[in-house]
């Protein structure tokens, strides 16, 4: 899809995403969090809506996360923005030449991504960071449409097992390849790779504090995955 048209279509899609109220539990939680703010953000206006993806409209790679953080994306209005997971991710993207700066603090902060689009399997912040499978499935059509518009995308970097499973379901829905029903089913792991319809899937541990603070996911591991992502894109 031509650059200007892709931007317009993705912007239209973003407007539709942000008006979604399909999942009553998620709607109630995201709005409750916005009312009962953390003291550190007491003076801020929370986004408190679903989050569209963002990045390069001509991206050949998609980074797929789990869901917005209650006081991160649900506050700032951009996925992986304003929380420790995003700090870790965007620092890695900058080190590998994919982002123009190592921080993502708010919409309009000047962050630009090259050849990458960042999004999430579930668009609203879930209680305890645990969306249900029904909520995942309700959100999949938004991601499927996003991937249709990102028609140059051929690689999906899946941050965690939940995103890996969502990517298998998305590729099956888009390509009719039955990827989510394959036996043996492609298993998630850090560094795992699998062809799924038109996409190459690449697995990475989620950059959650639980993983980064314990050393399960290090900066070196993150960089290696991002460099592999670039290799797959060039091969694609």
Describe the structure.
There is one protein chain. The protein is globular, with a radius of gyration of 17 Å. Strands 1-3-2-4-6-5 form a six-stranded mixed β-sheet, sandwiched between helices. It has one domain: Uracil-DNA glycosylase-like domain (Uracil-DNA Glycosylase, subunit E, 3-Layer(aba) Sandwich), CATH 3.40.470. The protein is of the alpha/beta class.
Helix content bin: 40-55%
Strand-pairing-aware structural class: alpha/beta
Q: Helical region count?
A: 8
Q: Would you tell me the overall average pLDDT?
A: 94
In the CATH scheme, what's the topology name? Uracil-DNA Glycosylase, subunit E
Q: What is the N-to-C order of secondary-structure elements (H for helix, E for strand)?
A: HHEEHHEHEHEEHH
Separation of the first and last Cα atoms: 17 Å
Number of strand segments:
6
CATH class placement: Alpha Beta
| Largest sheet report | 6 strands, mixed
């Amino acid at each position: 899809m031509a650059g200007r048209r892709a931007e317009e279509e993705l912007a239209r899609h973003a407007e539709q995403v942000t008006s979604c109220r399909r999942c009553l539990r998620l709607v109630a939680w995201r709005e409750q969090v916005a009312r009962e703010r953390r003291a550190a953000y007491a003076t801020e206006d929370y986004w408190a809506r679903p989050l569209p993806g963002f990045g390069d409209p001509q991206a050949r790679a998609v980074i797929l996360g789990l869901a917005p953080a209650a006081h991160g994306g649900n506050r700032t209005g951009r996925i992986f923005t304003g929380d420790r997971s995003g700090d870790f991710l965007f620092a890695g993207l900058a080190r590998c030449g994919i982002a123009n700066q190592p921080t993502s603090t708010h919409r309009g902060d000047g962050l630009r991504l090259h050849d990458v689009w960042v999004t999430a399997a579930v668009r609203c912040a879930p209680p305890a960071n645990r969306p249900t499978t029904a909520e995942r499935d309700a959100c999949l059509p938004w991601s499927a449409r996003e991937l249709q518009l990102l028609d140059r995308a051929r690689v999906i970097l899946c941050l965690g097992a939940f995103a890996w499973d969502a990517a298998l379901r998305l590729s099956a829905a888009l390509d009719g390849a039955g990827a989510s029903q394959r036996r043996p089913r492609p298993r998630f792991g850090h560094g795992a790779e699998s062809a799924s319809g038109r996409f190459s899937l690449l697995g990475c541990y989620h950059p959650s504090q639980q993983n980064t603070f314990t050393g399960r996911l290090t900066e070196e591991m993150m960089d290696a995955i991002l460099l592999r992502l670039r290799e797959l894109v060039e091969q694609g």
